[in-house]
Amino acid sequence: MNLKNNIKRIIKNIVNKLNKIASKRERNILLISYSGYRDNLKAIGDYLINNEYLKKYRLYVYVPKEVYRAKDFSKEIKVIHSKLVMVIYHITSKYIFYSYEQIKIKPSKDQIVIHMWHGSPLKKIENLEREEKRENCFFTKLFATSEYFKTIMAQAFSCKLDQVVLCGQPRNDVLFKKNKKPEFLNEDEKLILWTPTYRKATSINRSDGNLKNIIPIFLQKDYDCLNEYLKKNKIKLLIKLHPAEDIKDSDMI
C-alpha cells in the first residue's frame, strides 16, 4: 500500500473514531451532495422549509462551489462549500441525508443517516456492478420504492434488509398534488414524458454499456416521421435528458 493510501486510511480511522465520541447537535440537519442541490435532497429541504421545521432545526447543505447555483437556495439554508467544514458538521449533526455520493463515515449510535438514493435499480448499481465489492453502507436507513427492490437495494449497498425503508422518492410527492394543465397542451391532446437514463456520459467517467449500443436520443432523420405520428395522434412529447448526457454532437431542435 502506497503512502497516499496509508494517509487516507489513517485519516478515515481518525474521523470515524471522532464521530463515535463527538456529541451530536439535536437541531442540526445536514444534506450532502457533490452533484448540486437537486433531486431528493432539494425535495427534503423544501419540505422542511415549507412545513416550518426550521423554527426548531438548522439546515445545512454541502455542495462544491463548481455545482453551486444561488437560485436553488433560500435564505434559511446555510450553504457549505468546504469539504473539511462539511466533515466537521457531519460528525456533530444528528440528522444527515444523501441522495447520491456518501461520505465514508460510519454513523454513530446517536445519528440518523438517511440514504434516499435517486431512483429504482432497473440496471445494476453500486456493488451489483462491481467485481470487487466495496464497503458501501454508511447510513442507518436506505430508501427503496417497492418490496421488489428491497433485496436488490440491500445487496447493492451491502446493508441489512431491516435497514431498507419502503417509501416513495421525496421528489415525487409533487406528483400527488393537483396541478394546472400545461398551457401548451390542448384539451384533446395526450402528454408523454420520455426520461431516458442510458446515456453517453460527460460529467462522470463512464458510459452505460458499449457505446455502440447506446439508445439513440436524437436522430435527425427520424424527427419528421415522429413529429407526424405525434400530430396525427394528438400527442405532445416531452424529452427530459439525463443530466450527464453528452449532447455536444447532437442537433438540438
Short description:
With 253 residues, the chain is of the alpha/beta class. It has 5 helices and 9 strands.
Q: What are the main properties of this structure?
A:
7-stranded parallel β-sheet; two-stranded parallel sheet; 25% helix; 253 residues; alpha/beta; 9 strands; globular
Topology record:
Blueprint: H1 3-21, E1 25-32, H2 39-50, E2 58-62, E3 77-80, H3 83-92, E4 93-98, E5 112-115, E6 141-144, H4 147-156, E7 164-166, E8 190-194, H5 220-232, E9 235-239
Parallel strand pairs: 1-2, 1-4, 2-3, 4-5, 5-6, 6-7, 8-9
**Sequence of strands across the biggest β-sheet:** 3-2-1-4-5-6-7
First and last CA, distance: 52 Å
* Average pLDDT rating: 88
Question: How much of the sequence is in beta strands?
Answer: 15-25%
Largest sheet: 7 strands, parallel
Number of helices: 5
Give me the strand/helix succession: HEHEEHEEEHEEHE
Shape: globular
Main structural class: alpha/beta
Structural Rg:
21 Å
As residue ranges, the low-confidence spans are 203-215
Your description of this structure?
This protein is an alpha/beta fold and 253 residues long. It is 25% helix and 17% strand. The protein contains five helices and nine strands. Strands 3-2-1-4-5-6-7 form a seven-stranded parallel beta sheet, sandwiched between helices. A two-stranded parallel sheet has the order 8-9. Strand 1, helix 2 and strand 2 form a beta-alpha-beta unit. Helix 1 packs parallel to helix 3. The radius of gyration is 21 Å and the shape is globular. The termini are far apart.
